[in-house]
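With this grant's support, we have settled on a layout for protein records. A representative record follows, to show the layout.
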Amino acid sequence: MPDFLSFILFPYIPEQSSSDTNQRPYKRSPSREFEMQQIGLMRRIMQQAGPENCKLYITEWNNTISNRNYLNDSCFRGTYLCKKYRKFWIP
C-alpha cells in the first residue's frame, strides 16, 4: 500500500471528439467549484481502488497549464492560489 498518492489539477475538461483536427482535446471548466469536484472524484477513485486512507497530494495546481500565460508571472497567481487554498482547505 502506498504512503500517498499524487495528482495534478488544472481546470480543464476533455472535449468530445470531433472530426475537426484544429480543435483542442480539452476546454476550460466553467465551474467555480472545479477543484473541489475533482478532489471529491479523486477521493472516490481512491475508495474504489483501495488506498482510501492514503494521503492525497496535489503536486501541480494552477489556473492554467500554460507557462506562457502572463497571469503566471504576476501577483495574480499568488492571490489565486491563496484564495483557493483558503476557500477549500482552511475551516
User: Anything to note?
Assistant: The two ends are 29 Å apart (CA to CA).
